[in-house]
Amino acid sequence: MVARAGRTRTGIESATTGGGFPFLALFLGILSAGFLVAISAPPYRGSVQAARTVEARLLARSLWTVIQSHALASCGTPSRVSHGYSSAGFNDAGSTVPARWRVAAGGATTVTLDCATGTITADQDVFTIAGVASDVDSIRVRFAYATAASPPTHLTCSVDSGSSFKPC
Questions:
Q1: Residue 145 has pLDDT above 90, yes or no
Q2: How far does CA 92 lie from the centroid of its chain?
Q3: Confidence check: pLDDT of 6 > 70
Q4: Engineered SS bond to 88: which of 66, 74, 99, 120, CB 3.0-4.6 Å?
Q5: DSSP letter at 49?
Q6: What would the mean pLDDT of 110-121 be, rounded to a whole number?
């Protein structure tokens, strides 16, 4: 086979163009792709962790809504926090099925709603949602209630297995 300018084609050269693909262009393309992957990985990991924390926060808010409903229904008498598990997506033991999250009891195991004023008495940590699956095992969301605070409810989050919490 004779190529243009009187030389023979190698296996890399195309029959239509007559030239091979330059090694330098291939190397720079691979290097550029690697660089783009390297700079995009940390923000991606951060957004995945944020999404998983939001998942736990939604479970915490859902459980609190059910706890308030039970306290309202039994107005004036203590309502156990654990009675809300099944209505908020947890089993009776306080775990999701499949086991991804679990409820860890806080200092307030009961919540009482005053019939006349609507005031809730549960001045402390009510519960903590803790990750149990391997992709969320470092995430904790703690739900606390303080009657004197405004607003009285607040969530704090931890992404280091509960070593430190910050508002979320």
A1: yes
A2: 23
A3: no
A4: 66
A5: H
A6: 91
**Segments making up each domain of the chain, as ranges:** 23-167
Give the chain's radius of gyration (CA, Å): 29
Distance CA 162, CA 28 (A): 44
List of E strands, the chain: 79-80, 101-105, 110-113, 120-121, 124-131, 140-145, 153-158, 166-167
Q: Which two tokens stand for residue 72?
A: 């309202």
Euclidean distance between CA atoms 152 and 94, whole angstroms:
24
The pTM of this model reads 0.72
| Residue 85 · residue 109 · CB < 8 Å | no
Of residues 135, 146, 139, 144, the one with CA closest to residue 164:
139
Give, in order, the Cα–Cα distances in Å from 83 to each of 29, 68, 76, 141, 153.
Answer: 59, 11, 16, 19, 20
CA 72/CA 60 separation, integer angstroms: 18
Span 20-35, average pLDDT = 76
Residue 47 pLDDT class (50, 70, 90 cuts): confident
How far is Cα 105 from Cα 101, in angstroms, rounded to an integer? 13
